[in-house]
Design goal:
Protein name: Immunity protein 51
Pfam families: Imm51
InterPro entries: Imm51
Number of domains: 1
Organism: Chitinophaga parva
Shape: globular
Structural class: alpha+beta
Number of helices: 4
Strand content: 15-25%
Helix content: 40-55%
Largest sheet: 4 strands, antiparallel
Low-confidence stretches: none
Strand order of the largest sheet: 1-2-4-3
Radius of gyration: 13 Å
Distance between the termini: 33 Å
Length: 120
C-alpha cells in the first residue's frame, strides 16, 4: 500500500477523496509549529488555503479538477478522476514531507486566503 502521508485517500463509486485529519495528534504535532510560526491556526481551512496556493504555482491546470469540503478539523478534497487524485498526491506529498519546502510556501502565503473566508 502506498504511503501518502499526511493524506489518506478513498475511491468509492467514482468519488476520489483526499483527506488530512489535521487535528489528529500525529499531524498536529508534525505541522503545528510551521503554521503557528506564521500566525496560522493549522486547521483544515489553513491547509486548504496553502494547498490551493501551492497548486496555483505547481499545477494550476489541476485546480478545476478538485472540489473542497473542508472543515475546521480536517482537510477534505475530491478529485474528478483517479489520475487527478494521484497527481494531487504526487505534487503535495513531497511538499508536506519536507518541512523546509512547506515552510517556504507558508511563509509566502497570502494570509487572506488561509481562512474559511477564502473559498474560491
Amino acid at each position: 500500500m502506498a504511503n501518502y502521508f499526511p493524506f489518506t485517500i478513498s475511491d468509492y463509486k467514482g468519488t476520489f477523496g483526499i483527506v488530512a485529519a489535521v487535528e489528529s495528534p500525529e499531524l498536529n504535532s508534525r505541522y503545528f509549529d510551521i503554521f503557528h510560526k506564521y500566525h496560522y491556526e493549522g486547521n483544515g481551512y489553513t491547509w486548504e488555503g496553502i494547498i490551493r496556493q501551492i497548486l496555483e504555482q505547481k499545477a494550476p491546470d489541476l485546480l478545476p479538477h478538485l472540489e473542497y469540503d473542508t472543515l475546521e478539523g480536517g482537510f477534505y478534497a475530491y478529485a474528478d478522476t483517479k489520475e487527478n487524485q494521484l497527481r494531487f498526491l504526487a505534487i503535495l506529498v513531497p511538499v508536506f514531507n519536507d518541512d523546509e519546502a512547506l515552510e517556504d510556501f507558508v511563509s509566502q502565503a497570502d494570509p487572506a486566503r488561509m481562512t474559511a473566508g477564502e473559498r474560491g
